[in-house]
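Subject: Sanity check before I submit

Could someone independently write out the structure tokens for this chain? I want to compare against mine line by line before I put it in a report. The sequence has 287 residues.
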Amino acid sequence: MNLGAAPGTRLRAALREAGEGQRVLPFVGIYDLFSASLAAEHFDAMFLSGFGLAASMYGLPDIGFVGWGDLTTSTSRLRALLPDHHLLVDIDDGFGDPAVASHVARTLERCGASGVVLEDQARPRRCGHLDGKRLLPLQDYLNKLGAVLRECTSLLVVARTDASDPDEILERIQAFEQAGCDAVLADGIKDLALFPRLRAAISCPLFCNVIGGGKVPACSRRDLADHGVQGLIYSTPCLFAAHGAIEQALEGLKHEEAELSVALAAPRELSHCNAVLEANLRRAGGS
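---
Independent answer below. Compare away.
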């Protein structure tokens, strides 16, 4: 890995290497710096999830409450914490018209983002694996995508469609590639058999987004690689794992007879948690 190269350049090289090896590059969805710290011990690529950020920062559903300032602040802190990891950032619909979307992308590039995912939904937007989504007219989205691409230098841009009809998905991802995007993502795919058809229609990398309880059928990374996928976004594993663990811990605290030190955490958790934070300090250049 050429650590002197721009983050976007390094991410392109990683995707190319994955494609040449017929492998999938996994991006693990994180929602704050602590979840990123844990994920970074296991994976090289992070995904700053809009779903996770809306839940952790606002306690609200992923329907457009996250502001672009939330993303720039989080991205700057993540890059300081993880200087060598790939950081892919969910920018939803770009937060407005082409001028706003291009400014957001350019600012995130300066903050250290490796890439962004820009969707073709119209507001009010929704999580890609839920029903009730509305699409922008194709030309309106292409105008926004083109503005983003013109403003960025090395940032990798993943163009996402939330179309559900296979023919419309094909039309849109082909138009996205012709506009110059680096990769395409068709979200909420219900049938893995559609991926080879998409793969045959484009030459740029093809992404898949998997979310627990979402629309993509149960499969492995090997399955997706065999179907032509090169980039895989795990949107919410950290958030959903935290959800379950927190509920379990709090259930234990409800009982008056519970031994509190045990109910609050396993014996190793204090030292383990502090070790993660101390490692972050060293990585970020502290004492």
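---
OP: Matches mine. For the report I'm noting this point. The beta strands are 25-30, 45-48, 86-90, 115-119, 156-161, 183-186, 206-210, 231-234.
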